[in-house]
Design a protein that fits this description.
Elements lengths: L15 E3 L5 E3 L4 E4 L7 H7 L4 E7 H17 L3 E7 L9 H9 L7 E6 L1 H14 L3 E5 L11 E6 L2 E6 L5 E4 L1 H4 L4 H28 L5 H16 L1 H5 L3 H21 L8 H15 L7 H18 L13 H11 L5 H4 L3 H10 L9 H7 L3 H12 L2
Parallel strand pairs: 3-10, 4-5, 4-6, 6-7, 7-10
Antiparallel strand pairs: 1-2, 8-9
Helix pairs in contact: 3-4, 6-7, 6-9, 6-11, 6-12, 7-9, 10-11, 10-14, 11-12, 14-16
The structure holds zinc ion (2 copies).
């Protein structure tokens, strides 16, 4: 039996094993590099993927952060490549214009897409890769979200948030020496997305206990350990410490790996993600720019843990709820938002989201648990008072 928590993140590339949960698990990513200085290995990665012409996709910010260095590395090794560099502002959105413009810049000879960036550029490259059949590599510039190792692209199409099936990247190259220089709100966002796993994993356990939902203890142990390493180094993140940034990056990549292992997003997403999604959609409808996903998840994890506290007497015997104090102090130590008010969510939107965020999807979480017991309206009132007093 393989012990997942003993493996280094790079060992997960191409891994396949039979698990104590009764399933066969496998990881479709061929190469994972997460260490200081690994950006220099990019030409080697390109060579291993037998690419003859690289299409480099970046925006002005990510090009300055790592693209320029990558272009110089590719040139020095005489690789053929060309670039599409989007403007640095306004913030790039994964919509029809971005997707179309990236596709139009491709050439018939391209046989590898190299995205230099994080959220939008990764999602754009992933969709292009899925639809053209040309593999893509992500060179990460910010540890801001857990979509690096995912197989879906969340997009904004016709003004609505829609998630499209896509593919794994062929390789992920994440150099902490580059990532630590990302804007601070992107560092806290990545940290927030990881802290949200505490409540996501509790929701998964609750669903297993009450509804017999499929559950993989190995995957849970893997995530718990990755999350723990991040919270123990929360203060370091504030100081852009390379080790703290590395742990967050590892956890973000492993989170995608974990979703791939079990074939759904249970290891990474529970009620806290329903809140962030709900807030995001509401902002989108009002034409407002919403907070970074992971920063919303950060605040929502505190909300979700507070709901567990209010549900305490109703929970199954022996059930260990998320530790709200621990979540709160980790977020504060890292400088991440820790309440919906701090995040800028209005009192009205917050109250409404407690009542309706669960409608985002069928998934059973603490929200549906409270609703099934008729407690949700009282919890919405209590938490609105608590967070907006
Ligand atoms: Zn398993
Ligand atoms: Zn997330």
């Amino acid at each position: 039996m393989i012990d997942l928590i003993k493996l280094a993140p790079q060992d997960f590339a191409g891994l396949s094993f039979s698990c104590s949960c009764g399933r066969e698990h496998s990881v479709g990513i061929r190469k994972l590099l997460i260490e200081s200085g690994c950006l220099k290995a990019l030409p080697q990665v390109v060579k291993e993927l037998s690419a003859s012409q690289v299409f480099l996709l970046a925006d002005e910010n990510t090009f300055a952060a790592a693209g320029e260095e990558i272009a110089a590395l590719l040139s020095s090794e005489s690789f053929s490549f060309h670039c599409r560099i989007f403007p640095g502002s306004p913030t790039l959105v994964p919509n029809e214009a971005t997707l179309g413009s990236a596709l139009a810049a491709m050439e018939p000879e391209d046989d590898l897409i190299l995205a230099v960036g994080s959220g939008t550029l990764n999602d754009t490259a992933r969709l292009l890769s899925a639809r053209t059949g040309i593999p893509y590599v992500i060179a990460a510039t910010a540890p801001s979200m857990d979509g690096f190792a995912s197989t879906v692209s969340p997009l904004i199409l016709n003004g609505e948030k829609i998630t499209k099936p896509a593919v794994f990247p062929a390789a992920i190259v994440a150099d902490p020496a580059v990532l630590k220089n990302a804007p601070m709100e992107m560092l806290t966002a990545g940290f927030g997305d990881i802290v949200g796993k505490y409540t996501a994993l509790c929701d998964w356990r609750l669903a297993r206990n009450l509804h017999g939902e499929y559950y993989c203890p190995e995957t849970v142990a893997l995530m718990e350990r990755a999350v723990e390493k991040c919270t123990q180094n929360a203060v370091g993140l504030k100081n852009r410490d390379e080790t703290a940034v590395k742990y967050v990056t590892e956890a973000l990549v492993l989170s995608g790996v974990a979703m791939g292992l079990v074939g759904n997003s249970r290891p990474a997403s529970g009620a806290e993600h329903h809140f962030s999604h709900y807030w995001e959609v509401m902002y989108l409808h009002e034409g407002k720019e919403h907070p970074l996903h992971g920063n919303s998840v950060a605040a929502a994890a505190v909300v979700s843990a507070s709901l567990y506290e209010l549900a305490e007497k109703e929970l199954p015997e022996g059930f260990v709820p998320p530790d709200r104090e621990k979540i709160l102090s980790a977020l504060q130590a890292a400088g991440a938002p820790s309440s919906p008010k701090e995040l800028g969510i209005s009192k009205e939107l917050f109250c409404e989201s407690v009542l309706h965020a669960m409608e985002i999807r069928e998934r059973f979480t603490i929200l549906r648990f409270l609703q099934s017991r008729g407690l949700l309206p009282a919890c919405a009132a209590a938490l609105t008072n608590r967070f907006y007093s």
